[in-house]
Design a protein that fits this description.
The structure is a homotetramer. The first copy, chain A, is built from nine helices and no strands. Chain A is mostly helical. The longest helix of chain A has 25 residues. The C terminus of chain A is likely disordered. Chains A and B meet through helix 7, helix 8 and helix 9 of A and helix 7, helix 8 and helix 9 of B. Chain B binds a DNA duplex through helix 2 and helix 3.
Chain lengths: 209, 209, 209, 209
DNA sequence: GATGAATGAGTGTTCATTCAT
DNA sequence: TATGAATGAACACTCATTCAT
């Protein structure tokens, strides 16, 4: 429905302006001018300013979800998949940093409606992220390549939170280390944190708890 | 300077309204009415709407920084301090959830000025957080209670990011697990991730605690 | 660009209100209401309240400059052109007294921006007035119909100042004599002041008139 | 009544700020701060912001009127007095340029009340200026040193207008020639314009110069 | 579909003035 | 006298949205 050249131009321009100055500071008239369309055209294609944002949101999230699903489909061990997930996460952010920045920085603070309301399509997509993370961990638990002393779902939530937080702080300038290094470190620390114990070597060792 | 009864009332009311509806959706006239003062009084005390926000920001961050500094001053081992840091972090958030929510959700997306600009007082305070995290880890590295395969500063950044991300996702409703459980899990996983290596090979090693 | 019926209505209404109560005391909402448009429409067409003023300024000055240029184009002697200039000046003021009043009384005291800044379009137009006055005098000097004991440019400046001052005092109620009489007197006195010298030597010379 | 050290400080500070940024753009709180007094003190001494302006107005005008009266009291010829008047006018402006600027630029455009209303003390003082100009010219007419082909009062009005206009244009940057030159030129041209006729009877008479 | 002029409710902010102390 | 915290009525300006063409 929004796949004409015009709507692509609007999305591209809006992404750039949202990233540059923030969703709240970019005006629809500005977007229209920069995209070379009339202001009304935006409303024909997206219905509202939030509509543009949500379209960007959907496209960005969908590519992200699809990427993770593909990882899972490869059928590697849980540990390998977690490793791949980490690398994919940071790779995806790097490749779509403009759009990712918008989502991370301006959502949901600036949105008029409540796209985070229980049952909204956006909320469902965001919940699907946790679900996919959970599946990665569940596989590791099942095949013994990951050790989870806590419920899988809960662990998936903080795993996701640790990626999310590092990236958001990075994108708002509060973290110095470059993204690839963050990726490597997070991968390494999570591998360590979820490493299968050395039952053979120290059968009694029961850290955490 | 802003410690009259009136300015306290403005801060309390603004905190509540910002938390309820978001910084951008709370109006100064609304805050004034709810606080029982004239709108001009807000400007007499805080200069601008952003001024209110930044005052809340400063007070919240200062209590937070002071708490961490106190932890460090206790002189426990790095590992113990990291453990205490985790517990303090989530405890502080719980005790100041309203104000913490404002900071986490609405900053910096909604601010008109640039309080994250290099050199701004706000940026300095936020950078101080990472610095304190770094000191906790550095102590653990020095006393051998923590194993850091990566630079201390970089590790401090992702440690901070993991706390921040979990809490922000929790506060925006994307994480189900209750805060205390998040605290316990993060503590446990970080302890594991930074545990001194191969306790089996050095039988006296007694991780956790 | 601003030549729709709506923008003409805004200009006409604003001119009236500015003249009646002064630029600073006329509000944009009042202008909009009186012009029968929405307040936003003013900003659509003129960008700001100052923008209305500057449009009025430009239109008024342009007609004025064009009138003088036309006088010069007639190719009469300098003396005749000066005489015609005087009459044109007061005639123009009479015919556009409302707008002229606004310019004379409220400019530049009330303007927030600096339209008198060197290099601004307004400053250029105002400087062009002196330049045209200078050309009138220069012609008289060249053809011997005017005697100028001082530099032409400087004389043009006080010639202009004398018109300007008389009209401004008149419009602020500090001068009683009606405009036409001021015109006649200024013409006569300037003719006398710039009369070619030594009428005694050429007994037929009858300056003034 | 307003002759304490504090009220002098307020007047001096206000004069400076009014001259710098215009009456309308200088705030009472700013004046109070710069003068080192509380804002309320301004209202004790001057009753209102306009009150400050009017006090400056009165003091400036009074010195001006007194100067002209003194000129008249010297008992010189009308011609000599006119000459002295011109010199005094520009001299006074130079010596009080800050306060004169305020009056010339910001009055009456920015005043809330109507100090130009018929019967107001300000209007009376301003009318007195014309009256004194009239007396100078009347003396010249009586003693034969000035030739006035038009009513004395009317001539006084445009004489005053020519001074006023030149000075206002100068002070708003629309005239380049320095004040002293303007003084010399205006004196010379008016002398010429009002020169007694009969060039045939006194062939050597070369007024002006 | 595409346009862009028009809308108008809403916003943060200003500032001369007041008055209890 | 002097203070300065408090006031609150205005104000210029914004901008997502609509709709007649």
């Amino acid at each position: 429905m929004s796949d004409t050249a015009r709507s692509r131009a609007i999305l591209a321009t809006a992404s750039r302006l949202f990233a540059e100055k923030g969703y709240g500071n970019a005006t629809t008239s500005e977007i229209a001018r920069a995209a070379g369309v009339a202001e009304g055209t935006i409303y024909h294609h997206f219905g509202s300013k939030d509509g543009i944002f949500l379209t960007i949101f959907d496209e960005t999230i969908e590519g992200y979800l699809a990427g993770i699903e593909e990882l899972l489909a490869r059928g590697a061990t849980g540990r390998e998949t977690l490793s791949a997930l980490t690398r994919f996460q940071f790779d995806y952010v790097s490749r779509h940093s403009e759009r990712y920045l918008i989502l991370l920085r301006d959502f949901p603070a600036d949105l008029t409606a409540g796209p985070l309301a229980e049952g909204s399509p956006q909320k469902k997509k965001l919940d699907r992220i946790t679900e996919l993370f959970r599946r990665v961990l569940a596989r590791g638990k099942a095949d013994g390549t990951l050790h989870l002393p806590f419920p899988v779902r809960d662990t998936a939530e903080i795993l996701r939170g640790s990626f999310y937080g590092a990236i958001r702080l990075k994108m708002t300038g509060l973290i110095r280390a470059p993204l690839p290094r963050l990726a490597r470190m997070l991968e390494s620390y999570w591998m360590e944190a979820l490493a299968p114990q050395h039952p053979a070597e120290s059968p009694r060792g029961v850290p955490g708890g």
